[in-house]
UniProtKB/TrEMBL annotation:
Source species: Streptomyces coeruleofuscus
Pfam family of the protein (one): Abhydrolase_1
Protein name: AB hydrolase-1 domain-containing protein
InterPro entries from the UniProt entry: AB_hydrolase (IPR050471), AB_hydrolase_1 (IPR000073), AB_hydrolase_fold (IPR029058)
Cross-referenced PANTHER family: AB HYDROLASE-1 DOMAIN-CONTAINING PROTEIN, HYDROLASE, ALPHA/BETA FOLD FAMILY PROTEIN
Length: 269
């Protein structure tokens, strides 16, 4: 059962599960904490996992004023303080990986390690064109179902479209009681599109694992490689046959990989 946590004045909806070393899961564009359900279920026997709704997603409101990655990284840091967690393994997906980068740069003391899934250091022209289309699409799609079906073309593998997984995700999203508004989607999207940490990533000192899906259209492996090359001693791995969201499509593969990484970090003390 989730709960609302006051994180320096922002009421974040939080889901917690399990026992063990602390892990903070940071979602991407529009995703509520439930996006991490395969990890909350699959890793709770080894870790104490915390997932939350970012500003403007799920049950967390989006306050008036500018929205930035720095503010969202501040939310993550404040949440850990409110939960009395001195430091955690941080896993961020897509836009959540951009927040995780800012968290490691601005609040390094709370970061035990970094897993950056479907990430980049700076938007390229393709990404900017894609997100300009998304900004238009969410407002002008005929209905929410049409918007999700179009959006998920960039997110999931052809396999997931063929075997019914995407249809199930669409139905789950339509049934979710706290859908993201058009305005909040666009404001989050603008903040993520403004991400630029390329010239600062060399300052990250936490152990880092960068994962990319071989078939990812939104953040292809070449963008993840730049991130890994920029963070000292970061590991980089491409997941064959996977797209933008493998932690949902092949959770057993994703969970095993991050578990091995966190175990290695823990073994170093």
């Amino acid at each position: 059962m989730g709960q609302v946590i006051d994180a320096d004045g922002v009421e974040l909806w939080v889901e917690r599960r399990g026992q063990g070393p602390d892990v903070l899961l940071i979602s991407g564009l529009g995703d509520p904490a439930e996006a991490w359900q395969p990890q909350l279920d699959g890793l709770a026997d080894r870790y104490r996992l915390t997932a939350f709704d970012n500003r403007g997603a799920g049950r967390t409101p989006l306050p008036e004023g500018p929205l930035s990655l720095a503010r969202m990284a501040g939310d993550a840091s404040a949440l850990l303080r409110a939960l009395q967690v001195p430091a955690a393994h941080i896993a961020g997906f897509s836009g959540g990986s951009f927040i995780a980068q800012e968290l490691a740069l601005r609040h390094p003391g709370v970061v035990r390690s970094l897993v950056l899934m479907s990430t980049m250091a700076r938007p390229d022209p393709y990404f900017r064109s894609m997100t300009r289309y998304w900004h238009w699409m969410v407002e002008h799609a005929p209905d929410e179902r049409a918007m999700l079906e179009a959006f998920f073309l960039w997110i999931y593998t052809p396999r997931a479209h063929a075997d019914g997984m995407v249809d199930r995700f669409v139905e789950e999203a339509l049934a979710f009681e706290h859908p993201q508004s058009v305005e909040n989607f666009q404001r989050q999207l603008a903040a993520f599109t403004d991400h630029d940490a390329l010239d600062r990533l060399g300052r990250i000192t936490a152990p880092a694992l960068v994962l990319a899906g071989e078939l990812d259209l939104a953040t292809p492996p070449r963008l993840g490689r730049v991130v890994a090359d920029s963070i000292p001693d970061a590991e980089f791995e491409v997941l064959p046959g996977e797209a933008h969201q493998p932690f949902q499509e092949v959770p057993d593969v994703f969970n095993a990989r991050v578990d091995a990484f966190w175990r290695e970090v823990e073994s170093r003390g």
